[in-house]
UniProtKB/TrEMBL annotation:
HAMAP family for this protein: Polyphosphate_kinase (MF_00347)
The reaction(s) this protein catalyses: [phosphate](n) + ATP = [phosphate](n+1) + ADP
Amino acids binding ATP: N72, Y496, R592, H620
Keywords: ATP-binding, Kinase, Magnesium, Metal-binding, Nucleotide-binding, Phosphoprotein, Transferase
Cofactor (UniProt): Mg(2+)
Mod. after translation: An intermediate of this reaction is the autophosphorylated ppk in which a phosphate is covalently linked to a histidine residue through a N-P bond.
Active site: H463
UniProt domain PLD phosphodiesterase: residue ranges: 615-645
Family: Belongs to the polyphosphate kinase 1 (PPK1) family.
Name of the protein described by the UniProt record: Polyphosphate kinase
The keyword ATP-binding appears for this protein: yes
Known function: Catalyzes the reversible transfer of the terminal phosphate of ATP to form a long-chain polyphosphate (polyP).
Record organism: Microbacterium pumilum
Binding site for Mg(2+): R403, R433
C-alpha cells in the first residue's frame, strides 16, 4: 500500500529514474506553439477592464475593477517590463518562448499597454464616471464647483493640505528633484515677476491624504474633487509673487524588482533591507503624463528622467486611478455586490448552538476540505491554529508564512503558543514580492516571542501553504495537517478563492514533518507519500501523470486532464499537454491570468479547451485532476505552471483522496467549464472572447454566485439532519 502511494504521487526514486524527462518535448511540435506571456498578461488585464465596462455589474464594483487594473498594470511595469529591460541592458539572456527579439517584444508590450490604458481611461470617463453621476456620486472638476463651495474648499486646503505640500523649484541652486515611483505629481511652469525668467517646479500630491476630497452635500448627490485639482487651483498660494504659466500631472514608474545573490550574503535580512532601500531609486521605466501636457514640459521630464519616448504614455486625466479604491468606502450597498457572509464548513459546525468547535475531534472523523471565501477562514484555519495554541496537549506547531497581515490572528496564535511553552517553528518568506518589509517586521516580532523563525532555503522562495500540529493523545503523537492553496492571511481570505485540506492522516503528517525538516535543517528528502514537492519532484511528477493519461488514451482506456491554475507558462508542461491532446486526451485548462498555451490548433491542441473566470472573488486555487482510467488522481496546492514555481520555489501539492472531496472538486470544475457558465474562452490566436449571455439572450450562470448557493445548500442540509 505504501509503495502504491509513492507511485501515485510520482515521487518514488525508482519511478523517477524510469521516467524520461526528455519525453516531454516533441520535435514534431511547431516552433510557434506558444503565446507571448507578457502580452497574455496584458490580455488578462483587458478582461478586468471588460468587467468595468459591463453595465450589468454594480457601479461601485465596476469602479473597483478600474482600480484593480491600475494596480495590476503598475506591478506589471515594475516587475515584468523592468526585468526585461534590465536583462537587455546587462546583456543577460532574455526568457522568451515566442522566438522574437527582446526589443520586438518590448515594442509590442508598449503598443498594447498604450491601447489598453486608453481603453481603461475611456471606461472611466465615458462609462463609469457618468453612470456614477446619474446614481448620485459625482466626481467633479474645479469648473463645476460654485463660489460658495470653493470658499469651503479654500479653508480645507489651507487647514489640511497646504501644510504638508513641498513645492520644489528647479534652477541653478536647486537640482531636478528625485521623483519617487508611483507618486502623482504636478509639473508647474512659472515666471518670476521681477526677472521675467521662466522656471520649473514640482509638487508631489501627498499620498497620505484622501485622493478624492468630499464636498459639502448638495441634496442627495455626494460630490468629490480630485486632490490634484484642489492643489492645482491654489498654486498662487504656493508660489506667491510668481505668475503661473502652466501645470500638468505626471507619474513615474520605477524598476522595483528585488534581486539578491543569497549565496554571496551572510545575513539575508540585512541584504534584503539594503535592497529594499535601493528599490526606491530604481531606474525609470514608464512616464505617464496628461494628454494636455505641452512639449516644453514633456521634453524637460524626458531629459531629466533619462527616459525614452517609447516609455511615455499620454493619457486623459485623471492619472493613477488606484484612487478609485477609495470609492468602495461610500455607503451605497445598492451599488455593490450583495453582501455574502461565509458559512462555517459543515464538518466544523459545533454540535450545540453557541458551542465551541473541537477541531481535532472533527478532523479525526475524516479529512475536511474547506473552500474559501464561501466557507469561513476564521472558523476553520484560524480557529484550528488558535485552538492548537491554547490546547495543553499540543506539543508543537510548524507553519509556513508567505503573506499575512501585520495584525494577523495567525501570527498572534503562534506567539501565544510559543509563550505557553510549545515548540513553534515559523518559516517566513521574507522575499515575498512587495511584502518584504512587512514580513521582516513581524518575523522579528515572532522571534522576540520565542518562535523559531527560519527563512527557507538559499536560492528558493518558500511558497507552499502548510501547517502541522503535533498533539499527544493517550501517549501517542498525532499529526494534524493543513495544506492550502492560499496564504494564511485573514484579510485576503475574504476575497481570494482557495481550498484547504485538513487531515490527521499519518502519511501526510510524516510528509510535512520531512518537508519542514528539510526547510529548517539540512535534510534532503526525496520520498513523500501523498505530496508532490518542488523543486526536485513536482515537475517530473506532473509530467508523469500527464504522460500516463496520454498512454491510457492510446491504449483505449479512460483518460482526461483538468488543470486550474493562475498561470500556464512552463514549456515542458505545455508540450506534455500538446502530446496528450495529440493522443486524443480531452484537456481542460482553467486559468485566471497568463496562458502561453494555444488551444484548438489542428494536429496539436484540438482537444484542449482553455477558459478564464473573473468576478467578485479572485480565482486563486490550483487543482490538478487526472482521470487515471477511473482511479482519479487529484491534487490541490500552491504551484502555478511557471518556471519559478517548478524550479525556484518550494511548492507542495497534496493528493485528495476522500470520495466526497473528489466529487466536490469535479463538480466545481464541471461547472466552470460548462458552456452554460459565464467565462472567457481562449482562441488559438491568443484572443479571449467573453461568453456571458446565452443564445436566448439571458445571462449565463455566474460560477461564484452558484458556488455560494451550493455551499449554503450544504449547510441547510446539515441543519435539517
Amino acid at each position: 500500500m505504501i509503495e502504491h502511494e509513492v507511485l501515485d504521487a510520482g515521487l518514488g526514486d525508482a519511478d523517477d529514474d524510469d521516467f524520461d524527462l526528455s519525453e516531454a518535448f516533441d520535435s514534431q511540435l511547431p516552433d510557434n506553439r506558444y503565446l507571448d506571456r507578457e502580452l497574455s498578461w496584458l490580455a488578462f488585464n483587458q478582461r478586468v477592464v471588460e468587467l468595468a465596462e459591463d453595465p450589468t455589474l454594480p457601479l461601485l464594483e465596476r469602479a473597483n475593477f478600474l482600480a484593480i487594473f491600475a494596480s495590476n498594470l503598475d506591478e506589471f511595469f515594475m516587475v515584468r517590463v523592468a526585468g526585461l529591460k534590465r536583462r537587455i541592458v546587462t546583456g543577460l539572456a532574455v526568457p522568451t518562448n515566442v522566438g522574437r527579439a527582446p526589443q520586438e517584444v518590448l515594442a509590442d508590450i508598449s503598443a498594447d499597454a498604450q491601447a489598453l490604458q486608453l481603453r481603461h481611461a475611456d471606461a472611466w470617463t465615458k462609462l463609469v464616471k457618468p453612470a456614477l453621476s446619474d446614481a448620485g456620486i459625482d466626481i467633479v472638476s474645479w469648473d463645476d464647483v460654485d463660489d460658495e463651495h470653493r470658499a469651503k474648499l479654500y479653508d480645507y486646503f489651507h487647514a489640511q493640505v497646504f501644510p504638508v505640500l513641498m513645492p520644489l523649484a528647479v534652477d541653478p541652486a536647486h537640482p531636478f528633484p528625485y521623483i519617487s515611483g508611483l507618486s502623482l505629481n504636478l509639473a508647474i511652469r512659472i515666471r518670476n515677476a521681477r526677472t521675467g525668467r521662466q522656471e520649473f517646479a514640482r509638487i508631489k500630491v501627498p499620498p497620505m491624504l484622501p485622493r478624492f476630497v468630499e464636498l459639502p452635500h448638495n441634496g442627495t448627490t455626494v460630490r468629490f474633487l480630485p486632490l490634484e485639482e484642489l492643489i492645482s487651483n491654489h498654486l498662487e498660494d504656493l508660489f506667491p509673487g510668481m505668475e503661473i504659466l502652466d501645470h500638468h500631472t505626471f507619474r513615474l514608474t520605477r524598476n522595483e524588482d528585488v534581486a539578491i545573490e543569497e549565496d554571496e550574503t551572510e545575513n539575508l535580512i540585512q541584504a534584503l533591507e539594503a535592497e529594499l532601500l535601493r528599490r526606491r531609486f530604481g531606474p525609470p521605466i514608464r512616464l505617464e503624463v496628461g494628454d494636455d501636457m505641452d512639449t516644453v514640459t514633456l521634453d524637460l521630464l524626458i531629459s531629466e528622467l533619462d527616459i525614452t519616448a517609447q516609455e511615455v504614455y499620454r493619457l486623459p486625466g485623471p492619472l493613477d486611478l488606484r484612487g478609485l479604491f477609495d470609492l468602495a468606502k461610500i455607503d451605497r450597498p445598492d451599488l455593490k455586490y450583495a453582501a455574502h457572509v461565509p458559512t462555517t464548513a459543515v464538518a466544523f459546525q459545533p454540535a450545540e448552538q453557541n458551542g465551541r468547535t473541537d477541531f481535532f475531534s472533527a478532523i479525526r472523523k475524516g479529512d475536511v476540505l474547506v473552500h474559501h471565501p464561501y466557507e469561513s477562514f476564521a472558523t476553520s484555519v484560524q480557529g484550528f491554529l488558535e485552538q492548537a495554541a491554547r490546547d495543553p496537549h499540543v506539543l508543537a506547531i510548524k507553519q509556513t508564512l508567505y503573506r499575512t497581515s501585520g495584525d494577523s490572528p495567525i501570527v498572534q496564535a503562534l506567539i501565544d503558543a510559543a509563550e505557553s511553552g510549545k515548540q513553534v517553528l515559523a518559516l517566513v518568506e521574507v522575499k515575498a514580492r512587495f511584502d518584504e518589509a512587512a514580513n521582516i517586521v513581524w518575523a522579528r516580532k515572532l522571534e522576540k516571542a520565542g518562535v523559531h523563525v527560519v527563512y527557507g532555503l538559499v536560492g528558493l522562495k518558500t511558497h507552499c501553504k502548510l501547517a502541522l500540529v503535533i498533539r499527544e493523545e493517550d501517549g501517542v503523537l498525532r499529526h494534524y495537517s493543513h495544506v492550502g492553496t492560499g496564504n494564511y492571511n485573514p484579510k485576503t481570505s475574504r476575497i481570494y478563492e482557495d481550498f484547504g485540506l485538513f487531515t490527521v492522516d499519518d502519511q501526510v503528517g510524516r510528509d510535512l514533518t520531512r518537508l519542514f525538516n528539510e526547510l529548517s535543517g539540512y535534510a534532503i528528502e526525496k520520498k513523500f507519500k501523498r505530496m508532490l514537492v518542488a523543486p526536485l519532484h513536482l515537475r517530473k511528477g506532473l509530467l508523469r501523470h500527464i504522460d500516463k493519461e496520454r498512454r491510457n488514451a492510446i491504449a483505449g482506456k479512460r483518460a482526461r486532464i483538468r488543470i486550474k491554475v493562475n498561470s500556464m507558462v512552463d514549456e515542458q508542461i505545455i508540450d506534455a499537454l500538446y502530446r496528450a491532446s495529440q493522443a486524443g486526451v480531452p484537456v481542460e485548462v482553467w486559468v485566471r491570468g497568463i496562458c502561453a498555451l494555444k488551444p484548438g490548433v489542428e494536429g496539436m491542441s484540438e482537444n484542449i479547451r482553455v477558459r478564464s473566470i473573473l468576478g467578485r472573488y479572485l480565482e486563486h486555487s490550483r487543482i490538478f485532476m487526472f482521470d487515471n482510467d477511473g482511479d482519479p488522481q487529484v491534487f490541490i496546492g500552491s504551484a502555478d505552471m511557471m518556471h519559478r514555481n517548478l524550479d525556484r520555489r518550494v511548492e507542495a501539492l497534496e493528493r485528495v483522496v476522500a470520495p466526497a472531496h473528489l466529487k466536490e472538486l469535479a463538480d466545481f470544475f464541471e461547472l466552470a467549464m460548462s458552456d452554460a457558465t459565464s467565462s472567457w474562452w481562449l482562441g488559438p490566436d491568443g484572443e479571449w472572447t467573453r461568453h456571458s449571455v446565452g443564445e436566448d439572450g439571458k445571462a449565463l450562470v455566474d460560477l461564484q454566485d452558484r458556488t455560494m448557493a451550493n455551499v449554503q445548500r450544504r449547510r441547510r442540509a446539515r441543519a435539517v439532519r
